[in-house]
């Protein structure tokens, strides 16, 4: 009687070979985002438990596979756990600045609030439809070469310096501090992003939002904001409506930026039932209800219709109201 050949798991084996190959290649300057995502999927060891990593590579895009929410009545729509010692309410998550994922490629230094590239944390996958919140530092003249996206709403907010953008739709622009850029990747778009200045660093936030419509016609937009409109008040910079203030996206989301002097206080009322709010504190100390958050901390809140905000010092912050179910 012949012995049956041992059944090798080919997808796992192929992923392992790819991983070994990546280890043998030095990180080069200007590595594009697709390469980072590929390396991150493998480097996070996802391939050891799932074939989703291989599927993401086969897609020929740089978006990690869409994430399914945890089907728990208390946690539906996001893959992380509430903060048990919160002074606010049961439905809150606090992400301290130092708990974020880090990447240092010399020319690129990044902090990842949610799992991205080489940073993988199953409890930090997304907050509702907010998939990526990257806090990037890019050296002069460096950046990401041409790479693809699809079915993602991508928002870029320069904090310091200028970023040069070119895409497959023919758009070419420079986006500076005080402006905001948005792309609806839809059926597919390719673009490059570089620090426009050769002698100064670029600091920016890049945010990815899952859309509520798939395979839309790709679009690009950027606007210049009046910085005075956020002084001691909330300045809307994004909404679902093309005729509203700021840029618009294919999602029931609203973003606000603010620059508060110490002691300034206000209240934020949610725009849509079922949405959550993610607060990213850019600098200073901020009190959300009874919780103090410091520079670069993030705080997510849901199952409420309003919050109180008070600046404990001069502070700048970003509010992101997003649906909690994907």
Helix content: under 10%
What gap, in angstroms, lies between the N and C termini? Answer: 53 Å
> Could you tell me the mean pLDDT?
81
- Helix vs. strand class: mainly beta
CATH C-level of the largest domain: Mainly Beta
Shape: globular
Record field, number of beta strands: 22
The number of domains: 2
| Radius of gyration, whole Å | 20 Å
Number of helices: 3
Ranges with pLDDT <50 over ≥5 residues? 1-80
The ordered string of helix (H) and strand (E) elements is HHHEEEEEEEEEEEEEEEEEEEEEE
In spatial order, strands of the major sheet run 1-20-17-22-15-13-14
CATH topology of the largest domain: Jelly Rolls
Biggest sheet, in brief?
7 strands, mixed
Strand fraction? 35-45%
CATH superfamily of the largest domain: Jelly Rolls
CATH architecture of the largest domain: Sandwich
Can you describe what's shown?
There is one protein chain. Strand 7 and strand 8 form a beta hairpin. 10% of the residues lie in helices and 39% in strands. The protein is mainly beta and 326 residues long. The protein has helices at 10-23, 33-43, 52-58, and strands at 92-95, 101-104, 108-112, 130-138, 143-149, 153-160, 162-167, 172-176, 179-184, 189-195, 202-209, 219-224, 235-239, 247-248, 254-260, 265-269, 275-283, 286-288, 291-293, 298-301, 306-311, 315-323. It folds into two domains: 9-65, no CATH class; 66-323, Jelly Rolls, CATH 2.60.120.10.
Which features does this protein show?
single chain, 326 residues, mainly beta, Jelly Rolls, seven-stranded mixed sheet, seven-stranded antiparallel sheet, 3 helices, 22 strands, disordered N terminus
